[in-house]
Amino acid sequence: MTARYRKDPQEAKEFFASFRTELPQYGPPKTERDTMLLFTVQSPVKPLQDDMAEAVEESLSWNRHSGEASRTKTRWFSADSTGEAIRVSVRKYNPYFSIDSAEYWKRIAGDLTEDEDLVIASRERVSADGVQSMLLHMRDTNSSRSILHKVVLRNHMRYLLTALTDSAAGPSDFVKGFFDTFRPYGDSTDTTQIFAPRGTALIRDFHAADSALRASARMSVDEAEFRDADAPGIINLIRDGARRKRIT
Fold first, then answer.
1. CA distance 96 to 98
2. Its pTM surpasses 0.85
3. DSSP secondary-structure letter at 170?
4. How many helices (H) and strands (E) in the chain?
5. Which residues contact 136 (CB under 8 A, 6 or more apart)?
6. What is the mean pLDDT of the chain?
7. How far apart, in whole angstroms, are the C-alpha atoms of residue 166 and residue 183?
8. The dihedral of CA 169, 172, 176, 179: what is its sign?
9. How far is residue 63 CA from its own chain's centroid?
10. pLDDT digits (tens, 9 = 90+) for 9-43
11. How many CB atoms lie within 10 A of CB 142?
């Protein structure tokens, strides 16, 4: 704020003294259910709508079996009247991907602090009902900007909630309510956590009767982490492949 005056500065001083920042006000929240990205949340703001044709194509691609390491989709909940926005980024890992728990959360924190101006002010981990989450409160060392990140992990689906807030005023009711009520309800076919070894499952599915499952396993060999106990199964796959090649 800047004031210009000629003689008496009292009016400007009173204006400065009366200035207060206030959090934006919203109407009552409603349940939003995303049937493609598989989550529910209580929000007074509706998600931005995708182009219909694009949404259909992305939906088909999202659910298609492939050997990709992961796929990512984003939803925005943006309030035009206040300018506040929450981004929900969803990463769907390959079903045969697995990683050590400590290493995974270390990577997540490292990825979110790549910007050297941001530091972690607080960090909170929660695990309940098969869902693990980490809430990170980030602060900008060069401004009053504050960023809230919440990482929610349910089996092979990772949700990253992000909101920009003011460090003095804190998060609004919109942001707090959204973060508190966000719930992934998951894919019924995704029943194994990424922290559990998946090499044995890939070996089992390599010759599955279901053609889609078999194709998914064969395209995902590079994504699985094998243990010593998987060695006999891998050897059998190699021998079987060599035998089939001789026959053809």
1. 6
2. no
3. B
4. 7, 9
5. 109, 112, 120, 122, 123, 148, 149, 150, 151
6. 83
7. 25
8. negative
9. 17
10. 777 777 777 766 666 677 899 999 998 889 999 99
11. 8
Identify the residue whose tokens are 């090649």: 245
Both tokens of 227, joined, read 């243990």
Q: Write down how long the chain is.
A: 248
Closest CA to 104 of 230, 228, 225: 225
**pLDDT tens digits, residue range 199-232?**
898 899 988 899 888 888 888 888 888 888 888 8
Residue 62 backbone dihedrals phi, psi, to 5 degrees: -60, -40
164 burial level (CB within 10 Å; 0-12, 13-18, 19+): middle
What are phi and psi for residue 90, nearest 5 degrees?
-115, 125
Residue 41's nearest CA partner among 50, 26, 31 is: 31
If DSSP codes are grouped into helix, strand and coil, which group holds residue 228?
A: helix
